[in-house]
Amino acid sequence: MSQSNKALFIIFGGTGDLAQRKLYPSLYRLYIKGFLEEQFAVIGTARREWSDEHYQEIVRDSVKKLGGSEEQVEAFSRHFYYQSHNVKDTEHYNTLRDLSDDLDKKYDIGGNRIFYLSMSPNFFGTITSHLKSQNLVNDQGFNRVIIEKPFGTDYESSKALNDEILEAFESEELYRIDHYLGKEMVQNILAFRFSNPLIEQVWNKQFISNIQITLSEELGVEERAGYYDTSGALRDMVQNHIMQIFSLLTMEAPASFNSQEVKEKKMNVLTSLKQLSAEDVKANFVRAQYAHSNKKSLNGYLEEENVDKDSSTETYIAGKIELENDRWSGVPIYVRTGKRMAKKEAQISIVFKKSASPLYDTEETAENIITLYLGPSEGFSMTLNEKKIGMSMDTTIMKLDHLRSEGTIQESPEAYEKLLLDCLNGDRTHFAHWEEVSNSWKYVDAIRQAWDQSNEKLAQYEAGTVGPEEANELLAKDGHEWVWNPK
Ligand code: NAD
Description:
By secondary structure, this protein is of the alpha/beta class. Helix content is 36%, strand content 21%. The protein has 14 helices and 15 strands. A 9-stranded mixed β-sheet has the order 14-13-12-11-7-10-9-8-15, sandwiched between helices. A 6-stranded parallel β-sheet has the order 3-2-1-4-5-6, with helices on both faces. Bound molecules: nicotinamide-adenine-dinucleotide (NAD). Nicotinamide-adenine-dinucleotide is lined by residues 13-19, 46-47, 85-88, 118-121, 148-149.
């Protein structure tokens, strides 16, 4: 049974895209499921002058298609309050504190506060220092701060950002959201690996030939071009989502789901990453930009609005990551991610070594491949060999598929919904810890520095395709090919 929670949520950036598309729907799902009942309130803040009524209408609009009755939607929205607020204005924090204290009493919340910074990270330090100095941090219940990516643009800036926030909050109070960690199928990596002895026994270099992680997007940069052009695929996707998925796939089994325990196991792999020289980066990483497609009538990256016409920002990266430890040395882990690719697809393929038996050392016998579909479809597939029907002893490939249903509101929680609930429960297991963030920045910085010092041109790929030919060559050099390769 669900257990209801008490909290006041203060959302900075309450009029923004993330708040409307993800945060309000996720809070609503928790409400419908009984994880939030009466003892909660939400204050949305942003610069615009909105009334509570208008804000509540926006909230109703963002949740009304999610099920539940009209009365439930109405009752839920009545917990929402709006405060026009410029985050740089100290006086505004005093108004916000008074409203927070009033709502705390009105809803009998007991002082529990979750500050959600759904704004540009440039403001994080200003907000957290004011929360502390203007006494919004409460000494009755818990105080938790959730921050959104990007956590800096390199190791140095992420450390400065972290230090700034930690002047006002304890490290246990800081929740760095990486929404991939809240995805059903990303959490399923642990269940799949550690609840199946059949799988866990072969999850190592003795049996695995290579691992492939693909996070491809069909959309281009859209209205985020201004931000994206200063970031690129390496910082936007590899430093966070790909390195987190990579850690879950390669770490040793934690003794429990305790946050500290899981973090330590992830850290063991992140500190075993093979360090990259400039030559390694040149040989093992491909960066590319999407180019105009006549066939699909799609703009090239340099034709997009708000993109610098000489931009050398990569919209695609493919690379080979290697670990130097007992379980994985010698097993390449190929990763790739890009915008304007053929299709939206997030998947992991585990490619096993071919049969060692001379009986089946034939061309028809394929490698066993397990694929985890992270989204939009969720599930697994496995390819095995079996005997072909007939007189001969030849083999043929069989593919077993298990697709999980799309799910209803009751069954399949949203990533943000799960993570908000974890935060309410004080569980940081599925959040990014500073040690993980800092180590993955150091790895990614080495790639960025090698690129900055190189005068090699970016590769190109036609918009709407799977990526540049150079990414195929990267695997071909090792005698491998991408499992996901839509034409
Ligand atoms: P957005 O631009 O839609 O919203 C930004 C919000 O900040 C708005 O409510 C705006 O009014 C407010 N704001 C800006 N300056 C302000 C000021 N001086 N004082 C008070 N309020 C101010 O951005 P978003 O897409 O909602 O993203 C928010 C954060 O989440 C960003 O850090 C972004 O990188 C991150 N993020 C967003 C998404 C997404 O899907 N939208 C995904 C991952 C991470």
